[in-house]
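TL;DR need structure tokens for one chain.
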Amino acid sequence: MRKTLIAERLKLGRVGLGCMTMSGGYAPENRDDAESIRVIQRAVELGVSLFDTADVYGPFSNERLLGQALKGRRDSAVIATKCGLVAGPDGVLSRDGRPEHIRAACEGSLRRLQTDVIDLYQLHRVDPAVPLAETWGAMAELVTEGKVRALGISHATVDELSAVHAIFPMAAVQYELSIWAADNRADILPWCQVNDVDYVAFSPLGRGYLSGNVAGGSLDAADSRSRDPRFTADAMAANEIIVKGVRSVADRLGASPAQVAIAWTLAQDERVVALPGTRTLRWLQEDFAALNLRLSREDLRELDALPATTGRMNWDRWRVPGDSPTAGR
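>> reply
TL;DR here they are.
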């Protein structure tokens, strides 16, 4: 059983738009709400159907921005938002999967997004202090009440995916998937294949690194990437071989490295929807053009043979309770 509206629309548009960085995170000093609104509206014109946000982005301002941008265009968009993470006054995040929080969070998201229904409502992180069945049950009730059309989850284990899918079927999961973050091909993607669930792949550009536009030592201290081990100057220098490999394939195909990175993500399975994030029109149009790029088996073998990535991401370590980052997916 699947909620056909979200499933069908996800299949219509395999490149969505991640909106998180429009409200901070990466180079927050460059935030420009007017430009971001133009990007979202242009994305609708290009045929992008999936727009992804979360109540914790901002917090709250990203949902408001998306709601404003989609005014008068709501029927052309699939809105995906998330619940279950809460930002404290100091910016530190915590998890909250209590049913009463889930219901209140949904009402807040509906108001900010200026819509009467959320197409894809996702649990951002599992809260170990609350039985997962209770959290998921509250989310399922939102579907039966008509406030949500379909459910998804992010960063859950395979066992957790199976548990909640048996309680109430999900339409999609959301995890990172890119040339330099391919681990989920070993467990999460096969689970999606067996259970016929879509895989929304965030950061297909490796948080911008695979585009070749992020140089070692170039990140401002306010940029959340500057605090991640994978974005230290040493790690980026070590990972330059990956960027060179992507650029080599791109040059051969007459494409950009970003387009090759997105095309690789899409090539992993027909259920995969790539979710690059941008806040400029230039990169939006370049990213969306990746839909027309087809990688050969030789191209894919060459990309898969690139060295393993140096450095972990802070958010990789926070898939289970423990460290609490201040920014990220």
